[in-house]
Amino acid sequence: MRILLVGSGGREHALVWKLGQSPIVEKLFIAPGNPGTALVGENLPITDDDIPGLVRAAKEHKVDLVVPGPELPLVLGLKDALVNAGIACFGPSAFCARLEGSKVFAKNMMRKAGIPTADFQVFEEAYAAREYAKKHPLPMVIKADGLAAGKGVIIAKTREEAMNAIDAIMVQRVFDAAGERLIIEEALVGEEASLLAFCDGKTVVPLPSAQDHKPVGENDTGPNTGGMGAYSPAPILSEGLLAEMTERTITPMIRLLAEKGQPYQGVIYAGLMFTANGPYVLEYNVRFGDPECQPLMVRLESDLAEIMSACCTKRLTHVPVKWSRKTGLCVVLAAPGYPGSYPKGMAISGLDQAAAVPGVTVFQAGTAQSGDQIVTSGGRVLGVTALAPDLTSARSAAYQAADLIDFDGKYLRRDIGAKGISRTG
Ligand code: AMP
Ligand code: GLY
Question: Which atom of ligand 2 is the closest one to the Cα of 150?
């Protein structure tokens, strides 16, 4: 197989690292990739939003399967364009990708499928939203409808914050067209977990549980990031609960889409919150989580290329999907200032030493090649990922390796996996 993977982050490095181990993979291309993905395949200078460019490259390089890492190309219709060109794509159609691309669509679909989600109201103009927000109990959650680079969710603790959020989304249009509509919903309280599943349109095969760490600061303080670390399995989502949650939050959605003539193929991700009133779905993503993907990939024992192909050919029941019983844990090393503005171009040292720690793989994210040197080029720079017999040993290996890596202002959370350890005692 010849595979083209789209994206350039830590998730994409982990996916291409795993695909590179498959005996059925002959050649890997990554668009645009990073210096880490270049160790496994050939990087192509095409951005993830250039749909015609990606289709052209897939044809030119005689690619059998395209794997979009991020949501943007899926929402922009990459799958549909590839299918028209006769090329398989591990990912949903533009219609199904609206589960992530439009929060209004996702909430309406959840309501229709009977999936538990926070109570909500949709607004198409600011006046009505403000009137509603004047009376809604505090705190309340305000969400831009469309893609907003992870910044479109505001948890307003005061009326003033709510009014400012409505103004920013709908009047100032800080997220552009993503703010044509917004949602106001009840604020839920509880611990979050990530539930992912492979789907071939009909069959649903859940991945093991994972937990992300979204806030930048220790003990979940400070602004939200793309994720500062993740581990799998997450004790909050035991194997029994995982099966139950798949039945309650993923299967009904896949069934509803199939009934609409829109089979979902690819990986689906439900962001769950466990509240005092039971579990709720906060959101769907139509792709792997980043950084959840990193600990999941080091645990996957089966052939990822075979699984992805099977999802595209409705043969998911026929392929093995086996996972290591060990724990995977990823610590993200970030640039100083992230998720706000941060410097770039800082030289990174210690990558080889870190990778030599037993059980550790270093996935690159915001990195660039500058001569012989790997330098930083993004907010989330590296994902130091360990596979070890249990959570405690995975944590110590990941931190031991993370401490061997250095760049100016390197920032990391020291408490990745701490919630899992407090649950297991
Ligand atoms: P979303 O993009 O919908 O996942 O939102 C991003 C983050 O905002 C989630 O991971 C939660 O931490 C938080 N969030 C979203 N919706 C709610 C809600 N209804 N109540 C409390 N927190 C929420
Ligand atoms: N780690 C959260 C996400 O990928 O959306």
Answer: 5
